[in-house]
Amino acid sequence: MDGRTVIGKMPFWSDSRLWNAFMALTIFCILVGSWLEDPFLMLVPGILLGAAWFLADLRQVFYLLLFFIPLSIEMNFSNGLGTDLPTEPLIILMTGAFVLLALHQPNKIRFTHIFDLLLLIHLAWIACSAIFAEIPLIALKFLLAKTWYILTFYGMGRLFLTSPKSWRIAIWCLLIPLAVTHIIILVRFSAYGFSFKDVNSVVGPFNRNHVTFAALAVVFLPFGWNLFRSYRHTKILQWVILALLLIILVGVQVSYTRAAYLALLGGIGSVFLIRYRLIIPTLVIAVVAIVLFGYSLVQKNRFLEFAPDYNKTISHFEFEDLLTATVKLQDISTMERVYRWVAGSYMIGERPWTGFGPNNFYQNYEVRTVRSFQTYVSDNPEKSGIHNYYLMTAVEQGIPGLIIYLILIFTVLILGERIYHRTNDDQGKRMVLTVLASLVVIHVMQTMNDLLETDKVGPFFFMSIAILANIDRISQKETSTGRTPTDPVSTQSGES
Fold first, then answer.
1. Chain center to CA of 377
2. Residues 410-446 as b or e (16 or more Cβ within 10 Å = b)
3. Within 132-196, where are the H helices?
4. For 35-81, what is the HEC assignment?
5. Cα(114)–Cα(297) distance, rounded to whole angstroms?
6. Running DSSP on this structure, what letter comes out for residue 255?
7. What is the DSSP letter of 314?
8. Other CB atoms closer than 10 Å to residue 58's CB: what's the count?
9. Among 440, 468, 393, 458, which Cα is nearest to 216's?
10. Is 26 helix (H, G, I), strand (E, B) or coil?
């Protein structure tokens, strides 16, 4: 399928009559708009041109969406609604385009991979839990957002991210604006002497806080390293890419985000685990350790022994003090997380099957908190979530929802390791390591945050799985035919 199928194989402007008509309309709108002093009328040609371009070549619009991810700005309106501009409107448009494409040429969209099925089951259970939600309206909004993220970044990723060339274009589209935002933020931050207490005030407007700033950077870094390795025969480009990656890495360092540091180490460590076929033992050890730790806490309510001293659990303005306070359980951000985790555990016990509904944690957790864990920021003015994606999934979608999500990510990691060892092409092999490392970074970050529904992290999660499915498809063909093609991933949609 070639991404230009909505209105034909060739862009409409290849027809001289349509092009002349468009130019005449442009002149007319500019003249009449100027005379009437109506700026909207003057924008009509641009809107029409953008719509035509959108319909003519969805692949380029997909790349444009990736370009805007580092530049997107969160907007909150007086009526309580919020959106990310310009990414969310583009995501919704791409979702509509995917649906139209599926209706127009259903035989061209055949998603039969195990990842397709697991994502469908994941989405279906979210819909089921939304039906039983405490507040159905906000659960429905979550369901819609999850749907258009899957259709745009996974669906379009399956169609467009199918070859080394497409991967490189996508990574460039992310690298350039990400590096620009980091340069702007670092220059601005230098005026504050890179002070820990001022970090949140300089990362806007592109990031909500220092956590999203660091999360986007560490999730992208494996892709950036892949791009660097892709140009090993072009030293100038390699030096440019390396310089940009170092800027991004400096941004991670001065973000003072503990979860990002651990996640980056986890991503690096995952490369060795995959190469030595240690993913399954590592997952088994991790699950057993978490279960035993959780069991020890609930036995005779031992978790109450970790309740903080309200007067000592405070904010810290030096990063070294923050690290020390974290170890002593006196850091306010860490203990506020525990405060919400305890409430979340009670919520899971109250509704273990369908949960309270997607996006329903904030509205329901406060009456279930344990006051001995309360901190100075427990009033939660930001209306933030539980700060642990796995707990949040169990709270809002029930234990079945958590199990489905864990099956999805475990399958991706385990099968991803097998795909790596089955793939013969160097570029495909390197890309498998890239997406798996990025996914590990995401999963580590999710232990202390819930960022998968943000436009800074969510796209990487779904695109990584899509790329992995595409590589798996061709590696299976290689195995069945016993040959190694020159192009590691043959395209479903052609190259642009």
1. 27
2. eebbebbbebbebbebebbbbbbbbbbbbbbbbbbbb
3. 136-149, 156-160, 164-190
4. HHCCHHHHHHHHHHHHHHHHHHCHHHHHHHHHHHCCCCEEEECCCCC
5. 36
6. T
7. B
8. 27
9. 458
10. helix
Residue 331's DSSP bridge partners are 314
pTM: 0.86
How far is 415 from 417, CA to CA, in rounded Å?
Answer: 5
Q: Report in angstroms the alpha-carbon separations of 430 from 186, 222, 437.
A: 31, 10, 11
Is residue 329 packed enough to be buried (19+ CB in 10 Å), middle (13-18) or exposed (0-12)? Answer: middle
Per-residue pLDDT of the chain (496 residues; tens, 9 = 90+): 444 444 334 444 455 666 567 667 777 777 776 676 666 666 666 666 666 666 667 888 899 899 999 999 988 765 556 788 889 988 988 888 888 888 877 777 778 899 999 999 999 999 999 999 999 999 999 999 999 999 999 999 999 999 999 999 999 999 999 999 999 999 999 999 998 888 999 998 999 999 999 999 999 999 999 999 999 888 999 999 999 999 999 999 999 888 999 999 999 999 999 999 999 999 999 999 998 887 777 675 665 555 555 445 445 444 454 445 444 444 667 777 888 888 899 999 999 999 999 999 999 998 888 877 676 666 777 788 899 999 999 999 999 999 999 999 999 999 999 999 999 889 999 999 999 999 999 999 999 899 999 999 999 999 999 999 999 988 877 666 665 544 444 434 333 3
Is 80 exposed, middle or buried, given 0-12, 13-18 or 19+ CB atoms closer than 10 A?
exposed
By three-state DSSP, how is residue 170 classified? helix
